[in-house]
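stuck on whats below:

***
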Amino acid sequence: MLHVSKKAAAGLGLVAAIALAGCQGEPTVSTAENPATTAAPTAQTAAYLCPMACEGSASQQPGKCPVCGMDLEPNPAVKTGAAAPDSL
């Protein structure tokens, strides 16, 4: 009876090792499905950014960060096209 439980333990250990080894591989993502390859605004060109600098939160419109849910803030690096009336 002890011989059977050693085989079962060895088999269970082998299954666990195979399962853990499969988790260490890099996922394959095609470029067609990768949102990073689309024409999304970058942090330098986006009008609004997340105050927590979450990746992928840059937007041309106000709203909420899709990662953390905070309100997006105007990007100080982007200059608006209209000049202030008192700047003349």
